[in-house]
Amino acid sequence: MAIFNFFKMPKVRQYHHEYIYYDPDKEEREERLKRVRQQLASESSNKAQPMLRKGVFQSQRKTNTASQQSRNIRLMLLIGVVVALIVWYMR
């Protein structure tokens, strides 16, 4: 059988079902959201964008570095305590 259909293979049939559910509340909600987003976009485009000050990112990096150092110190103390407890328990 397959010899006769070698060049023309049958296509796989797929089931496609579209749902017919209509939600008027959802339609109204989406329309309101679209109008609000357009209004916010128009208002934000009218405002001037604030200029970035020189050194803003550097000061943020310094605060992040300080918090990272304190986190590292706490982690090292915790690891030291755990190791000390394990050594004390093994004795």
Offer a few descriptive terms:
91 residues, mainly alpha, 2 helices
- Percent helix among the residues? 55-70%
Based on secondary structure, the structural category is mainly alpha
How many individual β-strands?
Answer: 0
- Helix count equals 2
> What is the chain-wise order of helices and strands?
HH
What is the averaged pLDDT score?
81
Distance between the termini: 80 Å
How large a portion of the residues is in β-strands, by DSSP E?
Answer: under 5%
- Specify the biggest β-sheet: none
Rg value: 33 Å
The stretches of 5 or more residues where confidence is low (pLDDT under 50) are none
Envelope shape: flat
Task: Summarize the model shown.
With 91 residues, this protein is mainly α. Helix content is 64%, strand content 0%.
Describe the secondary structure blueprint for this structure.
Elements: H1 24-46, H2 56-90
Structural commentary:
By secondary structure, this protein is mostly helical. The protein is 64% helix and 0% strand. The longest helix is centred in the C-terminal third of the chain and has 35 residues, at 56-90.
